[in-house]
Amino acid sequence: MQIEQPAFVLHSRPYRETSALVTFFTPEYGKVNGVVRGVRGGRKTASQKTAILQPFQQLTLQWREKANNASDLLNIQQIELSTLRFPLQAETNICGLYVNELLYRLLFPQVATEALFDVYQQTLYQLLASKNRADQAWSLRQFEFQLLTEMGHGLQCEQDVHQQAILAESTYQYYPQQGAVLLQNDSEQQGVLIQGDCLLALQEMRYCEDCLPQLKRLFRAVLALYLGDKPIMTRELFN
Hints:
This protein is α+β, with helices and mostly antiparallel strands. It contains seven helices and eight strands; from the N terminus they run E-E-E-H-E-E-H-H-H-E-E-E-H-H-H. The protein is elongated, with a radius of gyration of 20 Å.
């Protein structure tokens, strides 16, 4: 069966003499790994293909689905460039690469992610429109929140671990995979310190610049559970 999908490039590396092994993000098949031939070798067509295989520009892929294929590696037959692209520059480009790295490392291959595909495009729109670092940070926090939700690891921001409503004026220790504990009731004091209003703002997708540092610490702690020991490479670019 012939498959056609819109896609964005998440990651690319050389493969054999003239090909590239490219990880794409698609709506109906999620993250897919494909071999793109004729990418390297000095020919004009190779240069054209290399120019197409850049992040943040939407492509249309075609491949043939094979029955009883044990490998998840696709042979990409055709790639076309669409008119939708996001010319991210400087820090917004790094933010976009960070989003790509999260998808590349956290998604399982060939699992449908149509809602997340829409979220991804919306995040790129937000980054393109951002005017400062606070705008960029809020775009990333929203994406991280929705990514974890799609993965089945969503954050509980409306109730604490005892099913009591989060109080905006209270301070909590947030424990990944468990939830929030009122600071005065927590004997361990090993969670991520966060204000109740910041948890509620996150749940409501309500922008609060004062909450951004707390939310950054929260997501860094939660994502570390699923990323393992290998550091996020794009974080180093900010340094």
